[in-house]
Amino acid sequence: MASTREIRRRIKSVRNTAQITKAMQMVASSKMVRAQQSALNGRPFATMAIDLMSRLAADSHEEIHPLMAEREIKKRALIVVSTDKGLCGALNSNLFREVAKYDPAATVFIAVGRKAAQFLARARRKLAAEFSYHDTPDYADCRAISRFAQELFLKGEVDVVEVMFTRFINTLSQRPEALVLLPSGSIESKRARLKPEVKAAAKPTDEHREYLFEPNAAELLDRLLQYLLDFEVGQLLLEAKASEHSARMVAMKSATDNAQQLIKDLTLEYNKMRQASITTELLEISSAAMALG
Questions:
Q1: Domain range spanning residue 256?
Q2: How many domains would you assign to the chain?
Q3: Is residue 162 a part of any domain in this protein?
Q4: Active-site annotation holds for 88
Q5: Assuming Cys at both sites, which of 7, 120, 157, 189 could form a disulfide with 185, CB separation 3.0 to 4.6 Å?
Q6: Of all helices (H) and strands (E), which one includes residue 32?
Q7: Do residue 77 and residue 14 come from a single domain?
Q8: Are residues 222 and 271 in the same domain?
Q9: 220-247 pLDDT, tens per residue?
Q10: How would you list the strands of the sheet with 173-182, edge to edge?
Q11: Pick the catalytic residue: 88, 91, 117, 142?
C-alpha cells in the first residue's frame, strides 16, 4: 500500500500535469477560434469560384482542358493532410485508418504534415513528396502542393489525384474525407464538398445568366483553373487546421478534467490514510494510559 509521502508526490505530479494541459487547452482554444473562422469564411468564395470555373468551361467551346480530362484510373495519387504535432485525440488515427484502405501498389502518396510522413514511412508506402504548412496556410504552401499534383497528372504518371483530409464539422466533430482534386469535376460534385447551407446561399438564382469574358473564355480558363485549384487546396488545409485545433482543445480539456478528478481521488485517499494513522496513534496512547493505570 502506498505511503502518505508517495501519495503527496503523486498529487504534486498530477497537479503539474494539469497545469500543462490547461495551458495547452487555452492556447488551442485561441487558435481554434481563428482557424474555424478562416475555414468558414473561405467556403462562400470557394462556391463562387466553382460557379465561375464551370461557366468558363461551358463557354470555352473548345476541347476539354487537360486538367479536366477524365481517363481510365490505373494509378492514383493521394495527398494525405495531417498534423505536425500530436495530442489531438484520435484525429490522425481516424485519418490514417482511411488511408490504409488504399491499394499501395496502385497509389502514390503525398504527405502534408509531419505525422502523415511518419505514418507512410512506417506503413512502407511509396512517398512521392513531403510538404509542411503553417498554422495559417499561406498561398505559397497551397501553390507548392497543388502544382506538384498538377505536374503528376499532366505528365500522365497518375490518372486521378485525391486529397484525404479532416473535414471540420463543429468543435466536437471532425470527419476524415477523400475528395477528388484532379481531374477537376463537375460543378455539382464540387458543390457537394461544401456545407448544405453554404451551397443554398451561394447557388445562383438565375441559371441563364450571361457572362462576358476578356480576352476569351478559353484563355481565361487556362489561367484561372490553376489558381482555383491552388485555392481549393488552401481551403482543404484551412479545414484540416480548424479540425486540428478543435480536436486538440477538446483533448486537452478532457485531460485537464481527468487530472483534476485524479487529484480529488488521491487527496481523499491521503486524508483517509492520515485519519487512520491518527486514530491508530490515539488508540495506542489510550491503551498505554490504561495499562499504566
A1: 4-23+252-292
A2: 2
A3: yes
A4: yes
A5: 189
A6: helix 4-59
A7: no
A8: no
A9: 777 778 888 888 898 889 989 999 999 9
A10: 127-131, 107-112, 76-81, 160-170, 173-182
A11: 88
